[in-house]
Design a protein that fits this description.
Oligomer: heterodimer
Largest interface: A-B, 28 and 22 residues
Helix content of chain A: under 10%
Shape of chain B: globular
Structural class of chain B: mainly beta
Largest sheet of chain B: 6 strands, mixed
Helix content of chain B: under 10%
Structural class of chain A: mainly beta
Largest sheet of chain A: 7 strands, mixed
Radius of gyration of chain B: 13 Å
Strand content of chain A: over 45%
Distance between the termini of chain A: 36 Å
């Protein structure tokens, strides 16, 4: 199974709502990532989890709160978002090791619209 | 600053024709270079990944080359198909986690 799954595929939320994005992988990868991608732009790294611990936070606003309940799951909790947060949110996972080539596998993304 | 530049920004080709996409990078240190294909509204899918010692790698009709001395890479698509219409992103890795993404080349294949 070389698939990263993300739910929901689409999400529309108001600025006062609280919602969560979910990501799951069963490849035994111990690194998981959240990216934000605006239209016609490359993905921007938001967070990295390594062995279920947050290892990188790219100065993301606190209205985005990541969570890694176990080695297969990654959540992104959303609260009080702004319209400019509308984007495609991508989850990725990769193995950890000494090879130096950490292939990242991406999920299909969640298309988020903040109204 | 680590940068990855791709050219052209977009191109249109006829079905069955070949095309080559370019990628120049200034990422240092260098760990590996990847080419991803991304359909609109979908996540990127890996086509190839090359380390410093590799100068060519193929995946079906896709062939990537790497010149680590000049810091250039290319992706050649042979006998294009309508399904090849997508954005192709060059990604360079300097360390374990963080990737430097190019802006992508949008390829449109027309019948």
């Amino acid at each position: 199974d070389t698939e990263v799954t993300q739910t929901p595929k689409h999400l529309v939320m108001g600025m006062t709502n609280k919602k969560s994005l979910k990501c799951e992988q069963h490849m035994g990868h111990r690194a998981m990532y959240w990216y934000k991608q605006k239209a016609k732009k490359p993905p921007e790294l938001m967070f990295v989890y390594s062995y279920e611990k947050l290892s990188i936070n790219e100065s993301v606003p606190s209205r985005f709160s990541p969570e890694c309940p176990n080695s297969s799951l990654l959540n992104l909790h959303l609260h009080a978002l702004q319209p400019e947060d509308s984007a495609l949110y991508l989850c990725a996972s990769s193995p950890l090791g000494t090879s130096g080539s950490y292939e990242q596998y991406f999920g299909p993304g969640t298309r988020l619209t903040v109204t | 600053k680590n940068q990855v530049e791709q050219s052209p920004q977009s191109l249109i080709i006829l079905e069955g024709k070949n095309c080559t996409l370019q990628c120049n990078y200034t990422v240092s240190p260098f760990s590996n270079l990847r080419w991803y294909k991304q359909d609109t509204g979908r996540g990127p899918v890996s086509l190839t990944i090359m380390t410093f010692s590799e100068n060519t790698k193929s995946n079906g009709r896709y062939t990537a080359t790497l010149d680590a001395d000049t810091k250039q890479s290319s992706l050649h698509i042979t006998a294009s198909q309508l399904s090849d219409s997508a954005s192709y992103i060059c990604v360079v890795s300097a360390d374990d986690y963080k990737l430097s993404f190019g802006a992508g080349t949008t390829v449109t294949v027309r019948a």
